[in-house]
Specification:
alpha+beta, five-stranded mixed beta barrel, 33% strand
Length: 251
């Protein structure tokens, strides 16, 4: 699952890179670490407004739902991620895959690694090699309350490639190793504008050609008792240092 992400760029920097405008730039706040259960906002571009960037809650919700109960819904139906293989079959996700796709912007995300003999999961930070902006494939819902609309979006995950499988090295309950579906910039327009199922599935079967790098960071990422939304959370931390283990355990 991909439930920890990062978007450190300012609204102006994102607008310059994407050539799109935030609908509410004054409400956007960059973050170094966003745990999907928190109340921060994702930055997304939707099919219906492909020249704009909107804010969205993380995890699609039913159209008529009280957003203040979002975490209760996620506890029962975790929609932070949407499984690629079930997008056209799921009663929930199939409502959105044909007509409510989105681009979800990020410049990093965190995945857990398990090491033999170590109880704690070791967070790895993934980014484009120059820490440039990239985008996840997503779907979104529009939650209507009191004549106002709130976007809610899910990151699509797919079968992990060898690079991701080496880091996120524990399969899910179905035995599948997962990774977020990162779009190649050349497919952004197709993802938003595709009009046929075949076109959508072609993008779903693709992955970015941007060069990604990863490295271990502080275990504070996975601690609810630590403030992890801070610049230093992106700093590289050797295994032995962050786990207070002997240097001989890791190279």
């Amino acid at each position: 699952m991909c439930v920890h992400t990062s978007l450190t760029k300012s609204a102006k920097a994102i607008e310059k890179k994407t050539k799109k405008e935030f609908t509410t730039p004054q409400l956007f706040q960059p973050y170094f670490h966003f745990n999907g259960w928190e109340s921060k906002n994702l930055a997304i571009t939707t099919q219906e407004a492909s020249t704009q960037i909107a804010l969205a809650k993380w995890g699609v919700l039913p159209t008529h739902y009280d957003v203040s109960y979002r975490t209760d819904f996620l506890a029962k139906t975790n929609t932070l991620n949407a499984t690629r293989e079930r997008l056209f079959e799921s009663d929930l996700y199939s409502q959105f895959i044909e007509g409510q796709r989105c681009i979800i912007y990020a410049d990093g995300f965190f995945e857990p690694h398990e090491a033999a003999g170590v109880q704690k999961k070791i967070p790895y930070f993934f980014k484009e090699k120059n820490h440039e902006l990239f985008a996840f494939a997503g779907i979104y819902s529009k939650v209507i309350e009191n004549n106002s609309t709130t976007y809610a979006a899910s990151i699509i995950t797919t079968e992990a490639n060898d690079f991701f499988k080496a880091i996120h090295n524990k399969p899910n309950a179905l035995g599948s190793y997962r990774m977020p579906l990162i779009l190649d910039p050349s497919t952004y327009e197709t993802w938003l504008m595709a009009t046929t199922t075949a076109e959508v599935k072609t993008v779903l079967d693709s992955f970015t050609q941007q060069e990604l790098v990863s490295y271990a960071v502080s275990t504070d990422v996975f601690s609810s008792k630590k403030i992890s939304d801070r610049p230093s959370i992106l700093d590289k931390v050797p295994y032995a240092q962050q786990l207070n283990l002997g240097d001989a355990l890791f190279p």
